[in-house]
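This protein record is not my work; I was only asked to verify it. Take the sequence as given and treat only the tokens as open to question. I have pasted the whole thing underneath without changing anything:
***
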Amino acid sequence: MYDSEVVNFKIGDIKSGDISTGHRFLAPREFKVSNLKSYLDKSLKRYVIVDRKEREKIILKGAKSLASSVKGSLIMDEGLLETTVSMTEYPFPILGGFEKKYLKLPKELLIEVIKKHQKCFTIADTKGNLLPYFVVVSNNRSTKPKLVRKGYEKVVRARFADAEYFYANDRSEPLEHYNSKLSKVVWQDKLGTLAEKVDRVKLLAAYIAELLDPSLKESAVRAAHLSKADLMTQVVYEFPELQGIMGRDYAGSSKEEREVSEALFEQYLPRFAGDKLPSTKIGAILNVADKIDSIVGCFGVGLIPSGSEDPLALRRQSLAVMNIIMKNKWDFSLSNIIIRAIECYGAKLTRNSDEIQRDIRGFFISRLKNQLTAGGVEYDVIDGVFAASFDHLTDDIEKVKAVASLKKEPYFESLAVTFNRVGNILKGVDSLPEVSPQLFRDDAEKALYRSLINVENKVSSLYNRGEYKGALKEVVAVRETVDLFFDGVMVMDKEPTVRDNRLSLLKRVSSLFSGIADFSKLVVK
């Protein structure tokens, strides 16, 4: 309807009109609608709350009150709340309970069972431990709520009994037992089975551990070996959302070391926006190895995300890899990890190594650039730094911070103009001889050389220690003598030896900052 007029149209066999109905159980008869206010008022009288926000308020208030009545608090789940709001017209929260014996099962398993099968909220005590109660949101204000509650409790009890059986059956074998089934499961049609993926991840985890700390290698390989075993268990078959969670539990009961067990869960982090990153070294290594294997494999057979299409969540995985590296301040070459992952695939990949590396590098840069700009870093700073280097991410981010800080200085614009001029003159210039002071003819070039000698060692020392802000501050000291050089010296002298010597001098100037940023990418206002 538009105001009080019916807008005539059909969808399938349904024709538009001014007739609606009340709640299907409590007031199912039809009623006539004259306008929006009429629709809202008459619907409410017939037990239909049209406003989603109002239904949400009723659900939350009622569920929290019921949880409080048993000295607990509601375990909030935004997705479940959204579902219950959408499933109800006249929501009526009901408190139910179950036997305490089921609390021996993993907390996450109980929550998932009750959420998936019955759309129930769970309740926890002040320490976060589950209480033997749940809240279900009925769409019917029954005259016999106890009977309704018993019906829900009966179904929950049956579901928990199934979960208890699956859990006990899974734990009757050590976790490693389930690895034998991985060879029968295809991970990706063009890239082979889960067993093959595990073999590659073991090699990659060993490689990363060797780079970071060889003493971690044995545990990292063990975690990789068990990383997909829980996918073959009955509980994870029923509840795929529990992958990793059950792996951690089953590894613990199989007497695996704690970090190995924890890594089986942490390999999947972050699971959603804002989720935590791995907290253990083994978990971080396994996580990166697994995600790099997936990214390289997909890019290697042409399964590259485009537009909004990213069915394997490679964007999220690439960002997770970089954030883990930066969080842990790992100092290794990302390119070398990617090359090693390509080698682990052998002949399975259909694209050549250089293409894969190029495309993954661009993909990573794009993801990290989006994250940094969202955090307030100017795009040209990111472009300038990443044009100069994008491989040792911890260092590269420090360079971004250094250039961002430099750009705020009042002398930045004149500095950028000077360095851009240096870069423009050197464009297309390849091999040059070493600088020869004997070929200097002008005081300006002699002064620039003295200034360079004074600054180079300081810059090099600061650069090698990763103190990029300090290095750039030292570079600033050269600007004035570079400007005097350009004002007083003809760089492109007609005598080749003099010209090349002056170009070599400018090359030395360029090398002071070229490892930090490409100044031609920086925007000068």
Summary: The radius of gyration is 32 Å. The beta strands are 10-11, 14-15, 19-21, 30-32, 73-74, 92-97, 120-124, 130-138, 186-188, 192-193. The chain has 21 helices and ten strands. The longest strand covers residues 130-138.
